[in-house]
């Protein structure tokens, strides 16, 4: 006679995940997150605060919170940012309340940050999931940067040199995802697969902020 074993009580309780997306400038992080926002689901993509000016097509409060430098410094002083850094002359930071509130609602949270910011978060929240978005080649990255930046004063050599240094930080990350030019869905499927796999861990990651 067969016995029907109920294992529901043995399964780990699903917990919200904190996912850190990082990688070199020009690798396509913004495009990935814009698409993931449209996919919806039980997911919150944080909106980074920055002192840089909007690029054509960017919307305040959707792509970034565009704020003046004095407001950014006030947020640092008030402890409102999870991490912050100056990147290529502009300040970027992750508002802490966004992350706390989304996790409290039980939502998975994605934070986009540069490699320096990812290192800061890893020191604070090592149980987060760290994903490095990489180009398929440096030639491809160079072409992307040329297409994206036409403004005067743009230093392509500096961006590529920084990217080479950032690649040396790969051992700090849990996963690497290639983002081939013109194949955005490939990278998104990979990231979603990582999230699904992490949801199936026997010992779930516990993120407390």
Question: What secondary-structure arrangement, pairings included, does this model have?
Answer:
Blueprint: E1 18-22, H1 29-39, E2 43-45, E3 49-50, E4 65-66, H2 69-77, E5 81-87, E6 90-95, H3 96-104, E7 108-112, H4 115-124, E8 129-134, H5 138-148, H6 156-167, E9 175-178, H7 184-199
Parallel strand pairs: 1-7, 1-8, 2-7, 3-4, 8-9
Antiparallel strand pairs: 3-6, 5-6
Helix pairs in contact: 1-7
Describe the structure.
With about 210 residues, the chain is an alpha/beta fold. It has a domain at about 15-45 and about 105-200: P-loop containing nucleotide triphosphate hydrolases (Rossmann fold, 3-Layer(aba) Sandwich), CATH 3.40.50. The chain contains seven helices and nine strands. The strands form two sheets. It has a five-stranded parallel β-sheet with strand order 2-7-1-8-9, with helices on both faces. A four-stranded mixed β-sheet has the order 4-3-6-5. A hairpin with a 2-residue loop joins strand 5 (about 80-85) and strand 6 (about 90-95). Helix 1 packs across helix 7 (about 185-200). The chain is globular. The N and C termini lie far apart (about 50 Å). The model has no long low-confidence stretch (mean pLDDT about 90).
